């Protein structure tokens, strides 16, 4: 590298480097990593663009660039990802929260608005806890249970809940609804069940971007042969844990919404709706439970 490296020169160098390696947003990634290395924000990078970097600053940034070259996700390099306006800590133990999952929260909150003061909610496959914690913070009087089969994921979620002040969120380790066995019988009925389960068909895992397939946990990605293995179980079993009139809302993969809607209707849910994400993809299927167990 040159003897003197200013902020703007380093950003240009990293942008060009990332671009030659096929990274989709090279300029943004360069700015995010440099801002993180300097403990500042992207606006300050522009303001201080001609400031030369110190040797230790260059060293920190160079280490981040080396890791990004291997397609390690920006969220893992920075150690956090924003979701619903809150910073969630993330690492290789959990799926990185996506903006599209915010729609799952929005649907769940809107469809249970009449219960906003007394909501009982369950979030399956909670991962980083982004959905459960957001519901808990948006509905401070709610009682929220978050469940995951991965103890490592629950450790991340618990840490996020503590940091973000979601003191009304409890935890139930285990496989989907089987995790509720750890709860008292009176605490096993809910007004809202949300889930962002693995829904990518097994054969498609190898075709995912390297940022995803090489770094995010496959346990949180692989939905079986057609991507619907866990979704079938959730749709079928949820009525046993939902109060009469309770709502089930699940996130699904691109193109899966019609098949999941059929699962809802076959199981007896009513008022089944499909909501689109910010990119216009049918992303969340929800319905009201009136079926008997």
The overall number of domains is: 2
CATH architecture of the largest domain: 3-Layer(aba) Sandwich
Radius of gyration: 21 Å
CATH topology of the largest domain: Rossmann fold
The CATH homologous superfamily of the largest domain is named Vaccinia Virus protein VP39
Care to count the β-strands?
9
Could you tell me the strand content as a percent range?
15-25%
What string gives the helices and strands in order? HHHHHEEHEHEHEEHHEHEE
Q: Major beta sheet, specifics?
A: 7 strands, mixed
Helical amount: 25-40%
Strand order of the largest sheet: 5-4-3-6-7-9-8
**Structural class computed from helices and strand pairing:** alpha/beta
Written description of the protein model:
By secondary structure, the protein is an alpha/beta fold. The protein has 2 domains: 7-70; 92-288, 3-Layer(aba) Sandwich (Rossmann fold). It contains 11 helices and 9 strands. The strands form 2 sheets. A 7-stranded mixed sheet has the order 5-4-3-6-7-9-8, sandwiched between helices. The chain has a two-stranded antiparallel ribbon with strand order 1-2. The radius of gyration is 21 Å and the shape is elongated.
Outline:
This protein is an alpha/beta fold and 293 residues long. Helix content is 37%, strand content 18%.
Labels describing this entry:
methyltransferase; S-adenosyl-L-methionine; alpha/beta; 9 strands; RF_methyltr_PrmC; PrmC_N; 293 residues; Rossmann fold; elongated; seven-stranded mixed β-sheet; Release factor glutamine methyltransferase
């Amino acid at each position: 590298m040159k003897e003197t490296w200013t902020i703007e020169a380093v950003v240009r160098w990293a942008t060009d480097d990332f671009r030659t390696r096929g990274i989709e947003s090279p300029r943004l990634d360069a700015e995010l990593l440099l801002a993180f290395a300097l403990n500042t924000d992207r606006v300050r990078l522009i303001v201080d663009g001609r400031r030369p970097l110190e040797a230790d600053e260059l060293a920190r940034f160079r280490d981040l660039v080396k890791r990004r070259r291997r397609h390690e996700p920006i969220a893992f390099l920075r150690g956090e990802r924003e979701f619903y306006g809150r910073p969630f800590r993330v690492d290789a133990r959990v799926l990185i929260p996506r903006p599209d999952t915010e729609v799952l929260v929005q649907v769940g909150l809107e469809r249970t608005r009449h219960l906003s003061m007394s909501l009982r909610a369950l979030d399956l496959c909670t991962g980083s806890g982004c959905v459960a914690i957001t519901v808990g913070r948006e509905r401070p009087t709610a009682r929220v249970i978050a469940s995951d089969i991965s103890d490592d994921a629950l450790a991340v979620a618990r840490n996020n809940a503590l940091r973000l002040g979601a003191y009304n969120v409890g935890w139930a380790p285990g496989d989907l609804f089987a995790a509720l066995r750890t709860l008292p019988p009176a605490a096993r009925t809910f007004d809202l069940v949300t889930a962002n389960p693995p829904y990518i068909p097994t054969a498609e895992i190898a075709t995912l971007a390297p940022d995803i397939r090489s770094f995010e946990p496959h346990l949180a990605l692989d939905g079986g042969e057609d991507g619907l293995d866990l979704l079938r179980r959730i749709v079928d079993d949820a009525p046993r844990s939902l109060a009469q009139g309770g709502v089930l809302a699940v996130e699904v993969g691109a193109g899966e919404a019609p098949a999941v809607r059929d699962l809802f209707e076959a199981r007896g849910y009513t008022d089944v709706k499909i909501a689109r994400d910010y990119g216009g993809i049918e992303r969340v299927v929800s319905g009201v439970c009136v079926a008997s167990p």
